[in-house]
Automatic annotation (TrEMBL):
One Pfam family this sequence matches: SSF
Reaction(s) catalysed (UniProt annotation): L-proline(in) + Na(+)(in) = L-proline(out) + Na(+)(out)
Signal peptide start-end: none
Membrane topology qualifier: Multi-pass membrane protein
Gene Ontology CC terms: plasma membrane
Upper lineage: Archaea, Methanobacteriati, Methanobacteriota, Thermococci, Thermococcales
PROSITE patterns the record matches: NA_SOLUT_SYMP_3
Transmembrane segments: 5-23, 69-91, 121-140, 160-182, 189-209, 229-251, 272-298, 323-351, 372-389, 401-420, 432-451, 471-490
Name the record gives this protein: Sodium:solute symporter family protein
Organism: Thermococcus cleftensis (strain DSM 27260 / KACC 17922 / CL1)
Family of the protein in this entry: Belongs to the sodium:solute symporter (SSF) (TC 2.A.21) family.
Alphabetically ordered keywords of this record: Cell membrane, Ion transport, Membrane, Sodium, Sodium transport, Symport, Transmembrane, Transmembrane helix, Transport
Length: 538
């Protein structure tokens, strides 16, 4: 069995190696290494966005949560779906327009230019937020890869982690953004097929959905309650705890960088929303039901699994021929790699470009900067490896913690800077500094990833008020308030305000070139994007 699984996986690995080799031919400059020269097709950018978003959390953490919580875990899927839509409505098109105007390669590039920060503090804070939380996020992906290899090939988790690190780091160093995007496209298809096939095989094995719910009801009736048996205010807190992922989407650099790379900002609306929305619904459905049905199989004695987060690889090995199980294992590793590669690339940009080049002012050639970035990728991977080997190895919690730090650090300032002309650099600095410090203290030292009353003194009182709600969900709105408050007491430069008004003012309907019906058939964002492109503003 293991030999057949290995053959299926090796075929997938060979495909990744070819993509890395092919992409290396198009990676000669810093701009190409980090955003693909801003020439990425919307289909590739969209699938890459979702593959980067749904990581080992989708293939291990979320099914494991459904295995443990039952129907209640479905709220997390709802949060992720609406978070995806929020990204494409609030962030994508406007960020692409601004990034084109400023020739921004990274999120810190954009924030520094948009807020006209000459102190370098925004870039330094951005680099610290990315380095701390992205490294933790990478460690979560390494852990997910290790668990998958362990379940599929009968090796230890730590050995699987090391194998994951070697494979992933190699092709990111080789190909840069092009390699990441096009491997993500392949990986998105692997993930989709895996999460469609596994639940249907489980249904056939167990004898249908009615039989599965009967087994689950006998084992634990609360797993069939969408609120986990909670009522009243506790039910609302339960739903928020799972659905809180929605606010995190607005601040994930490895996701929003995809929008900066797309060739045409107009295509981030209808085509982008349709592609990403359809893919998201299908994979979340599959991941949830894989964990839900996996619990039923486990209770019926049809499946042996030592860790709920290993339920999908265990089902693949149990239900499929060896060669097909190898492809499913590859699909799971795809989810891990499609996020970790993007995170490694963003982390390397924070150190090599944002700190070494921009803050320290080290002038180097474009090709040399690419080589420095590759060295940084290797360094970040080693740090992530250490955290993966020594951490708690619970993927859901590891991802939630890292996701929260990035959400609070970048989400409020990104959203406000794209939609409010009055936001100031002072507001941005205050909000980002608060987000960084508070997330490190509250998540790493006080509560963990969710509020609880076990913390001492005042923190215990706060924890009892929000018990069970992720720290980042409350902290996001606190940071938003701080940025708004400080911005109201300071003043943005007039030229920054004029630029924002010029780019995003309402576009008049012009008679002659197109009819009123044709113009109104497009969204205002699409009309603004067209106006900006034709006027040469981006």
């Amino acid at each position: 069995m293991n030999t057949e699984i290995l053959l299926g996986f090796l075929f997938y690995l060979a495909l990744l190696a070819y993509i890395g080799w092919w992409a290396n031919r198009y990676t000669k400059t810093e701009d190409q290494y980090f955003v693909g020269g801003r020439k990425v097709h919307v289909l590739a950018a969209t699938l890459s966005d979702k593959a980067s978003d749904f990581s080992g959390w989708l293939m291990l953490g979320y099914p494991g949560s459904a295995f443990k919580a039952g129907l209640g875990a479905f709220w997390a899927g709802i949060g992720c779906l609406f978070g995806t839509l929020a990204d494409y409505v609030l962030i994508g098109p406007r960020l692409r327009i601004y990034a084109g105007k400023f020739r921004a390669i990274t999120v810190p590039d954009y924030l520094e230019a948009r807020l006209k920060d000459d102190t370098k503090l925004i870039r330094i804070l951005s680099a610290l937020i990315i380095l701390i939380f992205m490294t933790a996020y990478v460690a979560a992906q390494f852990t997910a890869g290790g668990k998958t290899f362990a379940e599929g090939f009968g090796i230890s988790d730590n050995t699987g982690i090391i194998i994951t690190v070697i494979i992933l780091t190699a092709y990111v160093i080789t190909g840069g953004f092009f390699a990441v995007v096009w491997t993500d496209v392949v990986q998105a298809m692997f993930m989709l097929l895996t999460l469609i096939i596994v639940p249907f095989l489980a249904l056939a094995e167990i004898g249908g959905l009615d039989k599965a719910t009967q087994i689950i009801a006998q084992a634990d009736p609360t797993k069939l309650d969408p609120f986990g048996g909670a009522t009243g205010l506790a039910a609302i807190v339960f739903a928020i705890g799972y659905a809180s992922w929605i606010v995190g989407y607005l601040g994930q650099p490895h996701i929003v960088t995809r929008y900066m790379s797309v060739e045409d900002p107009r295509k981030l609306r209808r085509p982008g929303i349709f592609i990403s929305g359809t893919w998201t619904i299908l994979v979340l459905w599959g991941a949830f039901f894989a964990g839900f049905l996996g619990f039923a199989m486990y209770q019926a004695g049809m499946l042996q699994v030592s860790d709920p987060e290993k339920v999908i690889p265990a089902m693949a090995v149990e239900l499929m021929p060896g060669w097909l199980a190898g492809f499913v294992i590859a699909g799971i590793i795809s989810a891990v790699m499609s996020t970790a590669d993007s995170q490694l690339l963003v982390a390397s940009s924070a150190i090599a470009r944002d700190f070494y080049h921009k803050v320290l002012g080290k002038e180097v050639g474009k090709r040399q900067m690419v080589n420095i970035s590759r060295l940084v990728v290797a360094g970040v991977a080693l740090v992530g490896l250490w955290f993966a080997l020594t951490g708690n190895k619970v993927v859901y919690e590891m991802v939630a913690t890292a996701w929260g730090g990035l959400a609070v650090g970048f989400g409020p300032i990104l959203t406000l800077s794209l939609w409010w002309k009055g936001v100031t650099k002072e507001g941005g600095i205050a909000g980002m500094a608060y987000g960084l410090v508070s997330e490190v203290i509250l998540e790493a030292k006080v509560y963990g990833w969710a509020f609880n009353p076990d913390a001492p003194g005042f923190f215990g009182t706060i924890g009892s008020w929000f018990n069970g709600i992720p720290v980042f969900f409350i902290n996001f709105f606190v940071t938003l308030f701080i940025i708004i408050l400080v911005s109201l007491f300071t003043k943005p430069p007039e030229d920054v305000v004029r630029l924002h008004e010029e780019i995003f003012r309402k576009v008049p309907i012009e008679a002659g070139k197109k009819s009123i019906t044709e113009t109104r058939a497009k969204s205002q964002v699409e009309n603004v994007a067209e106006f900006v492109l034709t006027r040469g503003l981006a």
